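[Automated response] Your request has been received and processed.

Submitted sequence:
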Amino acid sequence: MTWEGLVLNALRMQEIPLTKSELVRIVCRAFALYLFLCAVIDSTYFPQHLNSLFYHLEAKRALSDDGYWTRYYLLETASLTVRAFGLLLGGLIFWNPGARILGLFRLGEVTSDSPAAPES
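Generated structure:
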C-alpha cells in the first residue's frame, strides 16, 4: 500500500471524506508554509550581512586594499537575497497548486470530486 492509500484509509476511518485533489492541496499548503517559514528565517540574516558589507565597503575606501572581504560579503548578501526570494516564489507556487503541481503527484487527470478509493 502506498502513502496515499494509507492516508486515505486513515481519513476514511475517521469519516472525513477527502478527494485526492483536496489531499494534494493540503500537502502543498503545508509545504508552502514550510517554504515561507524558511524565507522568514533567512531574512533574519539580512542585517548581519548588510552590516558586514557596509563595514568592509568603508574599510576598502579607507585602506584601499584589494577588497576580498567586500566581494565576499557582497556575494553572501546577494546569494541570501536570491535564496529568500526563491523560497518565497516556491511558497507562492505551492500555495495554489495548479495542473503542473497536480501533475507532479500524477493527479492531473483527476477531475471528479468524489472521494478516491484506496489502492489494494
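Summary generated for your ticket: Residues 3-11+18-104 form one domain. The chain has a mean pLDDT of 79.
If you did not submit this request, please reply to this message.
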